Amino acid sequence: MTQDVTGTPRVQGSQWYDNEAGPLVRPYAMTGGRTRPGPTGVRFDLIALVTLDPGVAGTDDTPLGPEHRTLISLCRTETQSVAELAAGADLPVGVVRVLLGDLLELGRVTVHRPVPPAQLPDERILREVIEGLRAL
After folding, report:
1. Fewer Cβ atoms within 10 A, N terminus or C terminus of the chain?
2. In b/e form, how buried is each residue of 23-47, taking b as 16+ CB within 10 angstroms?
Protein backbone atom coordinates (compact mmCIF):
# COMPACT_ATOMS: atom_id res chain seq x y z
CA MET A 1 0.00 0.00 0.00
CA THR A 2 1.33 3.44 -0.94
CA GLN A 3 0.37 6.94 0.12
CA ASP A 4 -0.65 9.88 -2.03
CA VAL A 5 0.67 13.44 -1.61
CA THR A 6 -1.76 14.12 1.27
CA GLY A 7 -0.59 11.04 3.18
CA THR A 8 -3.83 9.13 2.53
CA PRO A 9 -3.23 5.41 2.00
CA ARG A 10 -3.85 4.33 -1.58
CA VAL A 11 -4.61 0.77 -2.60
CA GLN A 12 -2.51 -0.46 -5.53
CA GLY A 13 -4.43 -0.09 -8.82
CA SER A 14 -6.94 2.41 -7.42
CA GLN A 15 -6.11 5.31 -9.72
CA TRP A 16 -9.79 5.36 -10.78
CA TYR A 17 -10.93 5.85 -7.21
CA ASP A 18 -11.00 9.06 -5.19
CA ASN A 19 -11.44 8.62 -1.43
CA GLU A 20 -13.67 11.68 -1.11
CA ALA A 21 -15.61 11.53 -4.39
CA GLY A 22 -15.88 7.76 -4.80
CA PRO A 23 -15.42 5.88 -8.07
CA LEU A 24 -14.72 8.20 -10.99
CA VAL A 25 -15.91 7.39 -14.49
CA ARG A 26 -16.18 10.21 -16.95
CA PRO A 27 -19.57 10.60 -18.68
CA TYR A 28 -17.99 10.31 -22.14
CA ALA A 29 -16.65 6.89 -21.14
CA MET A 30 -20.19 5.68 -20.42
CA THR A 31 -21.46 6.84 -23.80
CA GLY A 32 -18.42 5.95 -25.90
CA GLY A 33 -17.72 9.64 -26.53
CA ARG A 34 -21.19 10.30 -27.95
CA THR A 35 -23.22 13.33 -26.93
CA ARG A 36 -26.34 12.69 -28.99
CA PRO A 37 -28.63 9.66 -28.84
CA GLY A 38 -28.12 7.29 -31.76
CA PRO A 39 -27.94 7.90 -35.50
CA THR A 40 -31.66 8.73 -35.59
CA GLY A 41 -31.04 11.85 -33.50
CA VAL A 42 -33.99 11.28 -31.18
CA ARG A 43 -34.43 13.99 -28.54
CA PHE A 44 -35.62 13.00 -25.11
CA ASP A 45 -37.48 15.68 -23.16
CA LEU A 46 -36.98 15.59 -19.41
CA ILE A 47 -40.65 14.68 -19.00
CA ALA A 48 -40.77 12.07 -21.78
CA LEU A 49 -42.05 8.79 -20.35
CA VAL A 50 -39.91 5.69 -20.84
CA THR A 51 -41.41 2.20 -20.61
CA LEU A 52 -39.69 -1.14 -20.85
CA ASP A 53 -40.95 -2.94 -23.94
CA PRO A 54 -42.76 -6.00 -22.55
CA GLY A 55 -42.08 -8.05 -25.68
CA VAL A 56 -38.32 -8.04 -25.19
CA ALA A 57 -38.06 -7.64 -21.43
CA GLY A 58 -36.67 -11.13 -20.91
CA THR A 59 -34.33 -11.34 -23.90
CA ASP A 60 -30.65 -10.68 -23.34
CA ASP A 61 -28.86 -11.44 -26.61
CA THR A 62 -27.20 -8.02 -26.96
CA PRO A 63 -24.29 -7.12 -24.70
CA LEU A 64 -25.21 -4.05 -22.67
CA GLY A 65 -23.14 -1.94 -20.33
CA PRO A 66 -23.90 -1.66 -16.63
CA GLU A 67 -25.50 1.75 -17.11
CA HIS A 68 -27.88 0.35 -19.75
CA ARG A 69 -28.81 -2.47 -17.37
CA THR A 70 -29.45 0.03 -14.57
CA LEU A 71 -31.88 1.97 -16.76
CA ILE A 72 -33.64 -1.25 -17.77
CA SER A 73 -34.02 -2.30 -14.14
CA LEU A 74 -35.43 1.13 -13.23
CA CYS A 75 -37.96 0.90 -16.07
CA ARG A 76 -38.88 -2.67 -15.09
CA THR A 77 -40.89 -1.55 -12.06
CA GLU A 78 -42.83 1.34 -13.64
CA THR A 79 -42.89 3.92 -16.40
CA GLN A 80 -40.54 6.77 -15.56
CA SER A 81 -39.57 10.11 -17.02
CA VAL A 82 -36.08 10.80 -18.32
CA ALA A 83 -35.45 13.06 -15.32
CA GLU A 84 -36.53 10.31 -12.88
CA LEU A 85 -34.28 7.80 -14.62
CA ALA A 86 -31.32 10.17 -14.39
CA ALA A 87 -31.94 10.66 -10.67
CA GLY A 88 -32.53 6.96 -10.03
CA ALA A 89 -29.39 5.91 -11.90
CA ASP A 90 -27.37 8.80 -10.43
CA LEU A 91 -26.18 9.76 -13.91
CA PRO A 92 -26.13 13.08 -15.77
CA VAL A 93 -29.22 13.68 -17.91
CA GLY A 94 -27.10 13.94 -21.08
CA VAL A 95 -25.66 10.48 -20.45
CA VAL A 96 -29.11 9.03 -19.78
CA ARG A 97 -30.40 10.49 -23.06
CA VAL A 98 -27.61 8.83 -25.03
CA LEU A 99 -28.09 5.50 -23.25
CA LEU A 100 -31.86 5.64 -23.78
CA GLY A 101 -31.22 6.25 -27.48
CA ASP A 102 -29.25 2.99 -27.54
CA LEU A 103 -32.04 1.12 -25.76
CA LEU A 104 -34.66 2.61 -28.07
CA GLU A 105 -32.74 1.52 -31.17
CA LEU A 106 -32.38 -1.99 -29.71
CA GLY A 107 -36.13 -2.07 -29.14
CA ARG A 108 -35.75 -2.48 -25.38
CA VAL A 109 -37.77 0.60 -24.41
CA THR A 110 -40.55 2.74 -25.80
CA VAL A 111 -40.83 6.49 -25.33
CA HIS A 112 -44.09 8.39 -25.00
CA ARG A 113 -43.87 12.11 -25.32
CA PRO A 114 -46.16 14.27 -23.21
CA VAL A 115 -49.12 15.91 -24.87
CA PRO A 116 -48.24 19.48 -25.91
CA PRO A 117 -50.31 22.11 -24.06
CA ALA A 118 -51.77 23.32 -27.35
CA GLN A 119 -53.38 19.90 -27.88
CA LEU A 120 -54.91 19.64 -24.41
CA PRO A 121 -58.67 20.23 -24.11
CA ASP A 122 -59.78 23.77 -23.43
CA GLU A 123 -60.37 24.49 -19.74
CA ARG A 124 -63.81 25.92 -20.56
CA ILE A 125 -64.89 22.61 -22.08
CA LEU A 126 -63.66 20.68 -19.05
CA ARG A 127 -65.59 22.99 -16.70
CA GLU A 128 -68.76 22.48 -18.77
CA VAL A 129 -68.31 18.70 -18.54
CA ILE A 130 -67.86 18.92 -14.76
CA GLU A 131 -70.96 21.11 -14.42
CA GLY A 132 -72.91 18.66 -16.60
CA LEU A 133 -71.83 15.73 -14.42
CA ARG A 134 -72.80 17.62 -11.26
CA ALA A 135 -76.24 18.30 -12.74
CA LEU A 136 -76.89 14.57 -13.08
Report:
1. C
2. eeeeeeebbeebeebbeeeeebeee
Amino acid identity for residue 86 in this structure: A
pLDDT at 9 over 60: no
d(CA 44, CA 108): 15
- pLDDT for residue 16 is more than 50: no
pLDDT band at 14 (very low <50, low <70, confident <90, very high): very low
Instruction: Decide if pLDDT at 134 tops 70.
Output: yes
Q: What is the pLDDT of residue 85?
A: 92
